[in-house]
Amino acid sequence: MSVGRIRxxxxxxxxxxxxxxxxxxxxxxxxxxxxxxxxxxxxSSAVGSPGFVLAMLEVILLGGFSVVLVYAGYWLATSxxxxxxxxxxxxxxxxxxxxxxxxVALLQSSQLxxxxxxxxxxxxxxxxxxxxxxxxxxxxxxxxxVQSMWSQEQVERQRDxxxxxxxxxxxxxxxxxxxxxxxxxxVEEELDSEDPDLEAVESALSHIDDRGEDIVExxxxxxxxxxxxxxxxxxxxxxxxxxxxxxxxxxxxTYPEATIRTDIEPDxxxxxxxxxxxxxxxxxxxAVDHNDREYPTVEVALETDADTAVVTIADDGPGxxxxxxxxxxxxxxxxxxxxxxGLGLYLVDTLVDRYGGEVTATDNEPRGARFEVExxxxxx
Length: 380
Fold this sequence. Notes:
This protein is an alpha+beta fold and about 375 residues long. The chain is built from nine helices and seven strands. A hairpin with a 3-residue loop joins strand 4 and strand 5 (about 310-315). Mean pLDDT is about 80; it is low at about 1-5 and about 335-340.
């Protein structure tokens, strides 16, 4: 188990560690039971005798229940479930434990009231087994419940994403094509005239070229977003140092007017997939396209800590108002002049979240926007 995964599990906390706590308490009570009530019978019974086998079976069951609950807490902490769902799993564990223990306690009370003799060993034994079995049963119900909740959230997210993409394509591609057709008609009219306005033709061709590139970029981003929400690609090791260097080189060729400086730590590998390039492509394009300077400057850095790689892309543009620093990562919250309206940063946030990372927007100094992308390092 890597240090990174242990740290991630600890940070999730809450309901997941509540489940592990139940397992630890059960283990302590079981150990007390074995030492106080069962140690003598085990040592005095012949190996293979019914008493010895029964005692060992009890120890194995109680130990197994405890181990399962302790490990289940860790598993939940490293799962895809959010904090609220983890507490639901913990609550169901308690409900199952308490419910079965209550039933067994009622049965024991009924037996005692009817005059049946129950030894102290039997009472404690049955209650501990009921607690372990009930806790496991409740945990399984809880996991099933939160999995259903998570699956429903994923379905709703996919539906919302598809609705957004559908509206995006209908609205922005249609608008873009209208500009292309209008510009093409203007070119045709000017070329058919006896004295064509070459300046107007050049301007129209520039509009066609710009809108064509925007539409191609939009369709490519939609393809990446569709792959992301479908979950078809599994995460694995990605050499982010070389990837980021290549994307910076591409951006320098695309935006010769921009100065892009780098400070990239070498040989860094993160856990991601083949869609990761789209994150850096969009952030680099955003840093230049929305810059109000004639000659923009962009700073790109990559550094690591114990289990995280942090990519920083900072520009010297107008920056992002505080009230929009989170909203810009939602669908439809981008420059209205862009044919890819609202998709770039939304796509970035969707992909980074897919990798178990986080992207944040802050102010750059003395002006501009600063985007930080945290990605988990690859354990291998």
